[in-house]
Write a structure and sequence with these properties.
The complex is a heterodimer of chains A (291) and B (294). Chain A has 291 residues and is mainly α. Chain A has 16 helices and no strands. Chain A has one domain: MetI-like fold (Orthogonal Bundle), CATH 1.10.3720.10. Chain B has one domain: MetI-like (MetI-like fold, Orthogonal Bundle). Chain B has 13 helices and two strands. Chain B has a two-stranded antiparallel ribbon with strand order 1-2. Chain B is globular. The model of chain B has no long low-confidence stretch (mean pLDDT 86). Classes of the chains: A mainly alpha (291), B mainly alpha (294). Chains A and B meet through helix 2, helix 5, helix 6, helix 7 and helix 8 of A and helix 1, helix 3, helix 4, helix 5 and helix 6 of B.
Chain lengths: 291, 294
Amino acid sequence: MTDQALPLSTTRTERRTTRAFNFPHLAGRTALYLLLSIAAFVSIFPFFWMIVSATNTAADINTGKATFGTALWDNTVAFFTQVDAPRIFWNSAFLAIVGTVLTLAVSSLAGYGFEMFKNRFRERIFGLLLLMLSIPFAALMVPLFIMMANFKLINTYAAILLPAIASIFIIFYFRQATKAFPSELREAAKIDGLNEWQIFLFIYLPVMRSTYAAAIIIVFMANWNNYLWPLIVLQTNEQKTITLVIQSLSSAYYPDYGVVMVGTVLATLPTLIIFFLLQRRFVEGMLGAVK
Amino acid sequence: MAQAKLARDEQLNGWLFIMPALVLVGIFMIYPILWSLWMSFQTGRGMNFSFGGLANIERLTQDPVFQRALTNTLIFLVIQVPIMLVLALLFATALNDSKLWGRSFFRTAIFLPCVTSLVAYSILFKSMFAVDGVINDFLMTTGLVGSPIPWLSDPFWAKVVVISAITWRWTGYNMIFYLAAMQNIDRSIYEAAKIDGIPAWARFWYITVPMLKPVILFTSVISTIGTLQLFDEVNTITLGGPSDSTLTLSLYIYNLTFKFMPSFGYAATVSYVIVVLVGILSFFQFVVARDRSK
């Protein structure tokens, strides 16, 4: 369909010039750009819609007005009066940041441990963990909920944080990444008299910082956007996260979409900023699992 | 002597490093999943359980709402996952051309939806697909349809909206996996094929697709697991409606547990249906992938 692998040699320019008059090729190229442009437009339009709608009244949004309006200020004021925004953002940020730190600490330790200290039993355990990677959360939520109720942890952040700390995916991710960690570094540090924990803290951590960066992005995003489990566990408005709040605003019988869109913009902004600042790392993080 | 101590330390450290994670996995994954299995043999409402044997499985066979949820989930799976993966493969092939103009712009644009949270993009889709909303507005102005499509109030169109939404969110994600894998394919294979006069479509089908097979398998397994757990989108866009036409298994489990008078045993049984489906489908995908490599 596309000439994705033109020869890299000198024939390239030659081919190009002869091809310029090649009608089927030209038509193919045009179709290709048309397809990609449509895909790009479809991908970006909802973002445009989100931003435009934050400046429009609910009535305009409902009738499909796709141009900038003048209601941004009113929508923002309405959002901040309907919702205790600072509190909500603090909740989201707290859960996302503390959750990320705990998950990385425990799961990177385990990934390192599995790779560095190999033995038969631990390999079996690791195999079992990989198998559990495919267990859907839906199968866990009912017993987890009863468990949290028994522990009297409903409506606490502990209930959100605890089950997420040991992430099998992140353990797997770190184990894969650790394969690239030079074992000479560990041997040298041992000769210098460092114990295993010091090696992990002072040698491994700094060397693997790009792996940590990618993992931070993955876990932070997952925590910030988490919906189902917080929906089940958090019950009072003071505890809720931005994701829960915009969902409940939008599920009103007559949702005020102008207000909802302000909330949606604010909820999306942090992840959008992280993406544009750390684009490469972001994509690397997403790819981590298949290396 | 010193050797033995070193070996012992090594063993001890090996366990200590993984212990915190193992304890947490044990408490918050292994224990609940076993408990859930036990629960699926219990009947009763609220916290009053009694052993019911296979009563819950019998109830599954007589529960029209469960059957609708199962059918919907499988429809989403069978239609959405192939469309998304084919599109992702198509875009990846197009963007793998290093001489493509605007390549990084297109790549970033198609990947951008992955940045949104499931709830946020669902809200956007819900508002765009309102009866008088921007999508109908566009379709009517361009004359593609004569009267507004009842997107969210018609069982068929509601499914279409959910499928389009998921495809929008995840196509770029899968594309990135394919692009990364394509960069590892040795270009000289394509050159050789070109010199032999093999047309582009055949190069794609007989070189690219087989080379990408492990990644295609990986993406189809994770997409299958994801779609079988579909919750955030349907709970936000349609609440499972109209008349349960977009009700998914996860949403049904949620409703059984937290909306109605809780029926934990039965909810656990429904959740095991997802576990079994994930198991069967992953196994099936592995078998298909292995057969084709022979």
